Amino acid sequence: MVTGATSLGLVRSELFATIEQAEQSLEQFIADRLNVSLLQQAVEYLQQIRGILKLIELAGAELLAQEILLLATDIPAGAGQERDGQLAALGKALFVLRRYLEGIDVHRQEIPELLLPIINELRQSTGQPSLPESYFFSVRLDQPRPQRRNVEIQPGAANRDGARLRQMYQLGLMNVLREQNQSAALKLMSRALGRLDDLLGGRDRSRLCWIGAAALEAMAEARMRPSKARKQLLARIDRDLRQLLANPQFEAPRSLLKEMLYLVALAGTQGERASEMRRVFGLASLPFTDHLLEEESRRLGGPGQEVMRSLSLAIRDELVGVKDMLDLIERGTAQVEGKQALHAQIGKLAKTLDMIGLSSAGNALQNLVAMVGTWSERSDNPPADELLRLADALLYVESMVATLEQSEPRQRAASSQAGGRGEGESYATHQLDEARIVVIDEAQAGLALAKRAITAYLESSGDKLNLANVPTSLQAVRGGLWFLGLERAAELVGACAAYIQTHMIENAQIPSEQMLETLADALTSLEFFLEGGASLRPEGRQDVLDLAADSVRALGMQVAA
């Protein structure tokens, strides 16, 4: 890799000139598809590009050039519209190759993983299977598993609890596939695999669960993006779990284990499970992270979320100027020219908001343009109610502009349509949602405090002082959930509080490890429910509460169906 990045400077001029000639030949062939010589020229230039990249040992770029060449040779002279997709893919691949080589020329570092998405796009167009994320990653999988701690497992526990834990994994998987509440979902899935590993005795048979729990822990802590390949990987784990629980002789495919270890190395986190993987398998730190790959991919492919952030900052700067002028008008110190400038600025800002999809925010300002236009005709201050209307509209616009940095385009469009009910109602709804989020955050903090207290209780061999404030804290969480209308979740939290009070504080004997793990399952499920924005869409997350209720019933506590 170092050799290739260093040697690129020796052939840079010739290589980029050849890429440009290949692009020109391809563009000319697209315009004149009956000209066989143009296509042949493009193929010859691509062969030269591949040869140069092979010579200077740029593995990723060479592989991309090879796939480009294969696709180009697959296109016949006189190609019709059915080949438009492949021709577009060729042009895009050459563009990405050029940008990638430019990056190497500047930074002197090759990251072949950046090219895997475009390589797989080309392979799919020629009917070849996609390459895994770990294609350029190597690791020895035959390392022995270290001695694990002894865990008390009751007879038949694997058969009895295996289905419940796989269901826990599937609940998290569904949220990841829908790209909803991914961090909490990954934590839930990691816990499910970790518990399955314990139930299966922590032997080589459960190697899938052992490594999988570490990979999911690392993905959650690093907030790794849920690409299509990763969603397929997580779904594949679920299918293998079914075979693992049904067949005692089942062994996970080595390719799957390698892919999960790559995710651990890519995340670079310091969690307990991830650290164990790095120690056992000798995983070296990669020279990049998932977030760096995402950022560089945006650079290769064009504008992305960074552009939206820049746009948001620019609009906010305009809003600051508008608010400053509004303040001068309210004080009576603004000149006529300032009022006219305010009128023009609000009209321009309204059109900008409408153009980027924030139609409700744009309409909120557009409805006030005529009113602001009359201010320059007045010698006195505008009426107080008109000033307040503009101030309210600006606050609403600020709240909508904030979504540019946080939401995907479809979510922004949905938010804009919801705002069409009226700026007053939308702003009030936004503020109410903010208040609900505060209550949910407090509830999450209460559940996290309870889990930490239980851990301290175990580590201190049953010191009940660690649990002194837990029932009170959980009852406060219960009250907050009841206030939000989440009565069922409130009941389950109350049941957990009652169990801790009755069986852990008032009882002299420490509950069995299996019962404590079941209690932790219940608290984790409730935490997952809250982290999923439960206060905003509780109707679609009852399956998570069903899982929590199963755990509470396993504790011997009575809860409503």
Automatic annotation (TrEMBL):
GO BP terms: namely: phosphorelay signal transduction system
Transmembrane domains' residue ranges: none
InterPro entries per record: FimL_2nd, HPT_dom_sf
The segments labelled Disordered in the record are 407-426
**Which Pfam families has this protein been placed in?**
FimL_2nd
Q: What region holds the Scaffold protein FimL second domain?
A: 157-292
The name this protein goes by in its record: Scaffold protein FimL second domain-containing protein
Q: Which organism is it from?
A: Geopseudomonas sagittaria
- Lineage per the UniProt record: Bacteria, Pseudomonadati, Pseudomonadota, Gammaproteobacteria, Pseudomonadales
